[in-house]
Amino acid sequence: MKKRLLFLVTLMAGFGYGNAQDLPANPDPGKCYVKCITKDTFKEVTETIQTSPAYTTLEIVPATYKTVEERVLVKEASKKYTYVPAVYETVDVTYMKKEGRNNLSVVPATFGSSSQRFETYPQTSGWEYRILEDCPSVNKDDCVAACFVEYPAQFREVSFTTLATDASTNASPVPEQMATYKKRVVKTPARMEEIEIPAEYTTITKQVVDTPASTRSNTVPAQTSTVTRTVLDQKGGITTWEPVDCELLNPTVLPVFYELGSARLTADSKRVIDETLLPILNDSNVNVEIMSHTDSRGNDSFNQSLSQQRANSVVNYLVSQGISRSRLSSRGFGETRLTNRCSNGVDCSEAQHARNRRTEFRVINN
């Protein structure tokens, strides 16, 4: 009776401790609950810094000409009289044969240099002890002098390039070209009988500017460098209770088996993970521990490393499916947890060895 009473008091104390830990209210019978504390999440931020400024280069696009025809008067109309013909004289008529233009030349961008002085070592001072030469005393401490010594700071000049002036153009005028043609004009008109003399025309060709000279600019982009740093994205620390099947708190075998000496996940293995483990992680905030094993064949230390690689391959696959790595942990047990008698030196079939090359999972608290 006394022992039963002691057990009842202990049981009540245990319930009091559970309530002090803020256990879930109104729990479902037969359910187990896992405490989940959200973790800090981080993200990478890439910043771009300019290491060299942008500048402009200019390219000359020459002027283009086109040839045009123009009908010009070369002999004016006049009147002719009987007996006294008209008298003509020839004059030169000036016209613009080729229009003037501007030639452009590029003045390249110019650069300067500058520097900045940085202190590489600070100024220091202190006491130094020196032994005087030709000390007459046998005891050298009698000839020690204390000197307060100062050492100046050390500096370094760092040079860098600056843009002094950007590229531009200079314009130099090219004058137009002139030409003449002959023209006969009436000097003395005819007299008496008046006869009409028609005017005479001819067609001349000349070159005119079709498109004026211009410049085409090319921008040399600035040179940059990127710096990547990790920053806090969301602060964690929120505690929740997730209901899980109690069986999931114990190691549960995933039917994921591996080839001998390999940690590669096959297509069938990925399908098993998608159908069994991935829904548990997507539908809750619980954390999961992945545990992988090998068979007994091979070196023990190699099997330990191989089992860790197998657990890591499952974790990496879950991360590729959108599960946060902070919710997953992996452990390799090598050949220390065989499911059958197939230990070192025991003759077993390939099917028996294959059952030991397995992966298990269980739900754990944060």
UniProtKB/TrEMBL annotation:
Q: What is this protein called?
A: OmpA family protein
Keyword Membrane in record? yes
Keywords from UniProt, A to Z, are:
Cell outer membrane, Membrane, Signal
Return the Pfam families for the record.
OmpA (PF00691)
Domain of life of the organism encoding this protein: Bacteria
Q: What is its main location?
A: membrane
* UniProt xrefs under InterPro entries: Bact_OuterMem_StrucFunc, OMP_bac, OmpA-like, OmpA-like_sf
In the UniProt record, the signal sequence range is 1-20
Protein location: Cell outer membrane
> Which species expresses this protein natively?
Winogradskyella maritima
Segments forming domain OmpA-like: 245-366
